[in-house]
């Protein structure tokens, strides 16, 4: 009888000892950090008034998602795109605010379905050096550019690895400058962020996009598997609320709003 009671007492003691710790852990996870590609307008870019913060459609959507769930989402600058991915992989930052789904990335983060936006990746060329292009095979035998650790969807990534010559650089600015300086024949990069970068560098008139896009991929919210906040309940809540958001007009509205916001900033207008 004594043995049974002591066992029961131990269980009760463990319950009351561990419960406050569980509450504390959940409370700590009411504040989550997120990051993404800092050269990605209108989806994400560095806030001119606070360069350690990222703003854009993805950041606004996370802010809306957080408020709906009673969470505080801080979208921070995690360094260039390749380093931002490393920060999330290591769990030093909890979330990736806009990530293409690939098999390799699924080993490091948990993707929250459904994707909240889609973005086309396109072939950028110099106006004076365009070539006939109808699909991926037309890129063979030419020297292309891309970004370090960037993806354009699993299917294109696999095809490029087996058939194309792509040189990766750390930043979009470098990639576009290489193209302009004739060190590459083409560049694979997302359409809207590419338009923004071309405008920033004053090279819009010297570049063109070839149709069709190489891919159109979903942008997902992704939770680091190394984050202490990665718990089934949080993933379930994020997915349920994301499903509700995507069913409505908000993602498209935020994209349009931030496209205009970025244009105004470039013209010296209000932030």
Brief descriptors of the model:
single chain, 271 residues, alpha/beta, eight-stranded mixed β-sheet, three-stranded antiparallel β-sheet, 8 helices, globular
Rg, alpha carbons: 22 Å
Task: Classify the oligomer.
Answer: single chain
Order of helices and strands: HEEEEHEHEEEHEHEHEHH
Output mean pLDDT.
91
In whole angstroms, the N-to-C terminal distance is 72 Å
Largest sheet: 8 strands, mixed
Q: Care to count the β-strands?
A: 11
In terms of DSSP E residues, the strand content is: 25-35%
Class per helix and strand makeup: alpha/beta
The 3D shape can be described as globular
Uncertain runs with pLDDT below 50, 5 residues or more?
Answer: 1-5, 19-25
- Strands of the widest sheet, in order across it, are 5-1-6-11-7-10-8-9
Helix content, binned percent: 40-55%
The total of helices stands at 8
Question: How would you portray this structure in words?
Answer:
The protein contains eight helices and eleven strands. The chain has 271 residues and is an alpha/beta fold. An eight-stranded mixed sheet has the order 5-1-6-11-7-10-8-9, with helices on both faces. It is globular. The model is unreliable at 1-5 and 19-25 (pLDDT under 50).
Topology (elements, then pairings):
Layout: H1 2-28, E1 31-35, E2 39-40, E3 44-47, E4 50-55, H2 57-69, E5 72-75, H3 81-89, E6 95-99, E7 109-126, E8 143-147, H4 154-163, E9 165-169, H5 172-180, E10 186-190, H6 191-200, E11 207-224, H7 232-246, H8 250-266
Parallel strand pairs: 1-5, 1-6, 8-9, 8-10
Antiparallel strand pairs: 2-3, 3-4, 6-11, 7-10, 7-11
């Amino acid at each position: 009888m004594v043995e049974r009671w002591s066992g029961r007492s131990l269980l009760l003691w463990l319950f009351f000892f561990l419960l406050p710790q569980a509450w504390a852990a959940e409370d700590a996870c009411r504040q989550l950090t997120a990051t993404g590609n800092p050269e990605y307008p209108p989806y994400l870019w560095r806030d001119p008034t606070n360069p350690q913060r990222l703003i854009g459609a993805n950041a606004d959507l996370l802010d809306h998602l957080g408020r709906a769930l009673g969470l505080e989402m801080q979208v921070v600058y995690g360094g260039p795109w390749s380093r931002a991915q490393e920060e999330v992989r290591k769990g030093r930052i909890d979330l990736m605010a806009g990530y293409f789904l690939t098999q390799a990335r699924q080993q490091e983060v948990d993707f929250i379905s459904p994707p909240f936006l889609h973005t086309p990746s396109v072939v950028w060329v110099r106006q004076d050096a365009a070539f006939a292009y109808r699909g991926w095979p037309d890129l063979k035998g030419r020297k292309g550019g891309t970004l370090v650790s960037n993806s354009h969807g699993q299917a294109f990534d696999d095809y490029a690895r087996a058939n194309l010559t792509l040189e990766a650089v750390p930043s979009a600015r470098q990639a576009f400058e290489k193209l302009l300086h004739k060190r590459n024949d083409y560049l694979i990069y997302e359409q809207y962020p590419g338009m923004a970068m071309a405008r920033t560098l004053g090279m819009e008139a010297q570049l063109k996009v070839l149709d069709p896009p190489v891919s159109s991929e979903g942008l997902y919210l992704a939770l680091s598997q190394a984050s202490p906040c990665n718990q089934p309940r949080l993933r379930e809540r994020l997915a349920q609320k994301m499903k509700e958001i995507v069913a409505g007009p908000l993602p498209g509205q935020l994209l349009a709003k931030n496209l205009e916001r970025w244009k105004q900033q470039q013209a010296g207008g209000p932030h």
